[in-house]
Fold each of these.
Amino acid sequence: MKRKFLLLSIPILWMSGCDITDRVPENAITDLNYWGKVDDLRMYARNLYSQLPGPVGGSRYPDESKTDIVVEAVPSDYLLDAFTVPTDDNGWAYADWSPIRNCNYFLTHYQTVVGDEQEIKHYVGEVRFFRALLYFNKVKDFGDVPWYETDLQTSDQAELTKPRDPRLTVIANIKADLEYAITNMKKPSDVMSGQLHKDAALALLARVMLYEGTWQKYRNASPTVWQPLLESAAATAKRIMDGENGKTYEITKGTAPYTVSGYPLNYKAKFIQANKSNDPECILARIYSDETGVMHGLSRITSKGLSKDFVDQFLCTDGLPISISTSYMGDDSINSELENRDPRLRNILDCKYNPFILAGGTVSVNNPLLPTSVTEVETVTGYRSIKYREPDNIEPNKTAYDWYVFRYAEILLIYAEALAELGGEARCTQTVVDETINKLRERLDESSLTMARMSIASLQDDPMEQYNGQYRYGYDLSKLLYEIRRERTVELAFDGFRWDDICRWKAGALFNNPKSMCGIVINADVRARYAAAAGGTDPFASANLLSSTEQLAGVSATRDLLRAYSSGVEDRHVWNDRNYLRPLPKNQILLNPNLTQNCGWDGGSACP
């Protein structure tokens, strides 16, 4: 059995200047006695693993609260256009740049190590991977950022006060770091579970290239800029699909330990399985273990409400959207909404087929969803997300299942999207769809359910592509791209991608749809059901409702949707294009006159 690469708290040296004439301390780690053997590199690199995205900590918390698919108890100032430029921090503070400096420190000191050259290059590859990851997050947050390859000192005033480098320059450097890692890191079979390897670097490179390629395309950059980026995304994803490094990944159904009323929770089971490294779909996992006490609390974070707009995106089992499918049973209740729908919906949503608490496969508690407040068992929309909820009740912060850092499903979606962006159906052919999107659909089949496969020739326009005469994304999309985006939205929900997708697609218009802040339909039956659970009191007596008229199953339907917040400014999102990038804190611009503010924020230019 392959050993696991557990993330531990490892004290390593954070060196300051030493006089080289000093005697080497006998009981301390310093530059004078480190940097000698390969194990020094391994220990240093391991300390950077906390930067991997995960359920807690890391450089990118998998939180979708600032998106159109989630509604939380307190509305986001960012999405109400009420966020003000901070004086400090906001991702640009000393602590935010320290991990990059730590990478550069390694890369300017490792050369004195003596040992196996390939081992040395592997750990250099690990550190360059982390520098690429950290800089990628900086680009996503701020756009242009200063690129550094040395560990700066306070005396390096010229470097500390230089202007930001263009984002494409930084992306090129990120690509170079990852290409080094791909060339020099070990294969998946040659490392411990949870340790970086060649395929992990390929996966990050594919992610970076897709992000930047679409970012540039939807900002009207020259095709000579975005096309090579998307070509690289597709080619890199294909290298993983082809098993270039000796490991073949698969989209697997998984084994559901819980089945309710004949409805297996196969999709949910993938995310709450303990050892994800054994999953053929896992490219890289962040490892947790109750034996070592390295655990998290994601399984108890359950109060996030799904938006009505998100729920409506799930297809019916015939492969058609609810706006035109005759299989759609309506949304007079959560139960009817689940009928004949993509089973991922019930695997994500708290419902009678996926209850909040189970004991030995039997429903022991299925609390009603009372959207009057938010606690562990309540939500403001009536749709509660429990994708990562372990049905067996566990203590807070004692969840030990692993986290997918890179999952094969993402790679297939990258491949399909990149090709569709490059050449539509000419590049993303039915063959490509069959080896990507339809692989995900195949996993959804159950003994009494077959999820329709995507057929390019049969794709139809979805009337819900528009709301009140406006395109959802702010612009028209081909039917193929629209469905690929839908598949990505559903498959990767709550995995930490949604905000990045909105930004790279320049799709802030998604927030203009009021359903992004609404929940369940409130009708007489729903009022009666909730009143019975609330001791006879109608919890919606003074609720803020949205009267929404849309085409559902080919028929115009009007229903009252629950707004998440009380009437007033907080019953709608107010999108501003400046939100695609975060503002630089005021004190940093004062400290460095060569820094300029991002567009739309205080002192910044107008956003195009």
Amino acid sequence: MRSIGWWSCLGVLLWGAFAFMPGCGAQQKKAENKPEVAEKEGSSSTIAYRKMEPGEEEKGDALDETAPPSNAKTERKTRSRVVPAVVPDTKPAHPKSHRRKSVKKEVKQAAAKSRVHEDAAPKAPETTAAPSGQDIGSTEPALLAPSASEAKPMAAKPSVDEEPAADEEPEADEEPAAEAPAPAMPKMAAPSESATPSTGTFTPTSDGQYTVVRVFYGTDRAAVDPAFVKNPLYYQWLLYTLSSAGGTLVLASLAFYFWPRRLLKILAGLGITATLLLGVLTGYVATQGKMPGAVATEKSAEAAAYGPDRGRLELGTCEVSIPKEHEVGELESPSVLRLEFREDPEKHVVLLGVTRQPAEEFFKQIQTCVGQSAQKAAFVFVHGYNVSFEDAARRTAQMAYDLKFDGAPVFYSWPSQASMLGYTVDETNVEWSVPHLKQFLTDLAAQSGAKQIHLVAHSMGNRALTSALKELASLPESDRPKFNEVLLTAPDVDADTFKERIAPALAQTARRITLYASSNDEALAASKKVHGYPRAGESGENMVIVPGIETVDVSAVDTSLLGHCYYGDNRSVLADIFEVLHDAKPPSQRTWLEEAKRGLDRYWIFHR
């Protein structure tokens, strides 16, 4: 019995504690019977909430009235249904001011909405006509993003008698209209969003996993045996192996000098292990060679490959894969960090094969390609320093695919060493290639059947192109080929030589010349240190501005590491080139460009 008494007392205590817990028992009943008028603490006024009369029309979102609120959460939901009234109050501010501000804002919005429903007369919805020249069902151009300056629909203004309360904050759309923002920089859309020209240049595979792009080439490189062409990843793995070996040698030397230091000996041991592992992987990659598709193409009698040495002028075609998931401006390649040991056409831009052709067959195929295009056009790309034949072919195919070029894509490859340490050799070879490039351009203009031939050069390749055009300018006008658009991107040419000797001759060989320059080009900054004088591809105080050449400063758009390859991997610059090659728009009609002046000279810059 004693134990039952103790358990009874314990039960009474627990029941009492439960009855007086917050939200339970008596406290809950007290919350349900709260008065009609509740004072809101911490504000300069008290908000009185009254219940709605039976016939009164609700002004907000209707809530379920089948049951009265049973807890604080349900009470908060019903606040949108009450009619607010403001009563002066002098109570001090409550520390939880953030909740007070939120409730006050809700009450103000409900009051304003009530006045609009009660005072404003119902009006028929007005129909706003579409802006002039705009088709409601039309879509934006596939290659450029919509301009940021497009007008927004005007919000309906309140009637005269609807004056806002004195303490009511204006709505966002009631603020005075600000100045129209500058037009947005152009952006290239994904390749799949625009139609592919039907010239036979782009051929999707049967499974649709990648597209084969056919490009034409001219080169004065020495031919090599295709069987000895190394896997491009071999050089990457070799570089990692040599770097690991060098670091390991340093650590081993320090460990030997500071023999008691155990940590150095551990690091040296790890470095030796990493070097051995990278060496094995490098040897494995070296045995892989090219992809099976490329090897099969190279079995033909006319298969070719080209190295860094000088040779004779040869012509031919290349087949390059563009993967289905290609990004505009990207030159997808295998990555050592992703442990990719071979090129895959479904993932990377791969040179599948090179076919050498005699001149007669070469120009016959170009004529066919040009004849199938709407503009009867071709463009020639001349690469820069530290570029192999394979990389030149891949870049040309990527540019033609991203620009959706309707015509024949062509590139000229001079014998660059494709090495960071081969700068001086490249300087010698690019000058040696000038007469060969001159002959190639002359034959192309005479035998391609193209009505428009555009020329694009990059970096050191501008030396070969501008020198060839200068020599062509000395010919009689009847024998001089006339080119359409000439784009000089990041030219690694002496600025003074360009202004005084090259620029006057270029105007005689082209309809329009555009020079792209940047103040963020680290490669040209290094070239300036080597040569001691500014380069023509620099902007800022050394920018080249001469009559007959339209200079465009791209410093505002390039964000790459070296800022040197914006011509092919920057979407905004690609979009600008697209407008130049497709529609021949001058800078004044390319809305993302803004005119700037330096004294009496005029140039163009991208909007920041």
